[in-house]
Specification:
The chain is an alpha/beta fold. It has helices at residues 2-11, 25-31, 49-54, 59-65, 70-84, 135-154, and strands spanning 15-19, 40-45, 88-94, 110-117, 122-129. The protein has a five-stranded mixed β-sheet with strand order 2-1-3-4-5.
Length: 156
């Protein structure tokens, strides 16, 4: 994460996150690095559908594809980028080692990651199999994937 934060600072690029299953883990990791205030514009933890929708996710997308889908992750990443006026938006939704009784649809133990590049109007996507032992380990796996994706994106 340190490499990513320093690179974003160097490039004068900003990031915002809308996290669900990672519970703010990405933004926490960013803020553990000195200088993070230069690049982190905004972070929202939207565990419920209600707050995803309040933050701009189209309810019709959730109804059609489920809250646990790449389409919802795309809505999250783009809307948080637009809301925060950040260069990059990160959207994360998925199930970590549990069944969600409020949202019975969507794949179990899969996390959907979407990174929106506002300047190029482009999405970068990944699915992570969350099959490690604990929620904490799976969150760390997702965060590592996001760091890797972001470094690839900004080095292009």
């Amino acid at each position: 994460m340190k490499e990513l934060v320093l690179k974003l600072i160097e490039l004068k690029k900003t990031i915002a996150t809308m996290e669900s299953c990672t519970g703010g883990g990405v933004s926490n990791s960013i803020t553990n690095i000195e200088g993070a205030s230069e690049i982190l514009k905004y972070s929202a933890v939207t565990y419920s559908n209600e707050y995803k929708i309040k933050m701009g996710v189209d309810s019709k997308v959730i109804d059609k594809y489920s809250v646990y889908s790449m389409q919802t992750a795309d809505e999250m990443s783009k809307n948080i980028s637009l809301f925060a006026n950040s260069d990059y938006g990160v959207g994360i939704t998925g199930k970590l080692n549990r069944v969600d009784v409020n949202n019975p649809y969507g794949e179990d133990n899969v996390v959907f990651i979407s990174i929106y590049d506002r300047n190029n109007d482009k999405f970068y996507q990944a699915k992570v199999e969350a099959t490690l032992g604990s929620r904490k380990e799976n969150k760390e796996l997702v965060i590592e994937k996001i760091v890797s994706m972001m470094l690839d994106i900004i080095e292009k």
